[in-house]
Amino acid sequence: YSAQDAYSGSSYIVSVTTYNPYYYTTSEEQFFDDLKEEYIDERDTTYINTRLSISGYPALELEKKSHDGLNVYRIQHVLRYNKHYTLLVHAPREWLHTPTMDKFFTSFALLPTDSTGSLFTKKTQRLSADLLSGDSAIQNRAARAVYSSDFYSEDIPFLYEVLRRPSFDDNKDFRSVRTSLLRTLRSTYDSTTIPFLRELYPTLNDTLDLRDFLLQTLASYRTEEALTLMTDFLTTLPRNDSMEHYNPFSFIPKTNTT
Asked: Cα torsion for 145, 149, 155, 156, to the nearest 10°?
């Protein structure tokens, strides 16, 4: 919803975002901190942020001036289960906290509803199950979620499980699921990851360039162990033409110096 007040020159906007069933964030604090980063930048030297409760649901209110100081933004974010409501007014600064603006915010209310899930509960088990669903619509929804999801160290067993599933390569809609997760392993990994990649590499279908992505993942670690494994792969296992540009010595591993 959006409307313009011609008299004051103010803009009023209401929007709602419904998060996918697999979305996860660690806490309310993290959710609202992320919103503050999205709406407030380093040039916003004058702003107010206040935690609220609206209709019993957690909320955040932000106020800030435009960079020229002539206008103001007043924003309320309300989180109800998997829905995020945003109320925003952009107005000349003299209209901040006028009765008209205040009424826009105080008249907003949400009716009680049954829970539709929490953003603060990990959903990797559901994501894994839905990727194997016999329902193509559920499978495709889960695959899209893989591309947009953030994964953490506790999700590493899930990443390994999905990467071991060659059946995804037979589905044109899923071919990039495993490449996406190989990219994820460049930033989300632990001491088990390089042994896992050693096990995985010979099983990959190199016509889909999955081995290329795995080698790039190894290169990103920049360690002696990763360099040794890359050298082993490139000198002992068959490779396709697209791998000719890989030089196992093209990066310098991290070393401790004194």
From this structure: 90
**Residue at 166: amino acid letter:** P
| Rounded Cα distance, 216 and 34, in Å | 30
Residue found by looking up tokens 């390994």 in the block: 160
2-5 vs 57-65, strand pairing mode: unpaired
pTM: 0.70
Report yes or no: 72 and 96 within 8 Å, Cβ to Cβ. yes
Q: What is d(CA 185, CA 194) in angstroms, rounded to the nearest whole number?
A: 10
- For residues 200 and 214, the answer to whether their CB atoms sit within 8 Å is yes
Of residues 106, 111, 123, 102, the one with CA closest to residue 83: 111
| Strand (E) or helix (H) holding 110 | none
Buried b (16+ CB within 10 A) or exposed e, 98-128: eeebeebbeeeeeeeeeeeeebeeebbeebe
Structure confidence by residue, pLDDT tens digits, 190-229: 999 999 999 999 888 665 678 888 999 999 999 999 999 9
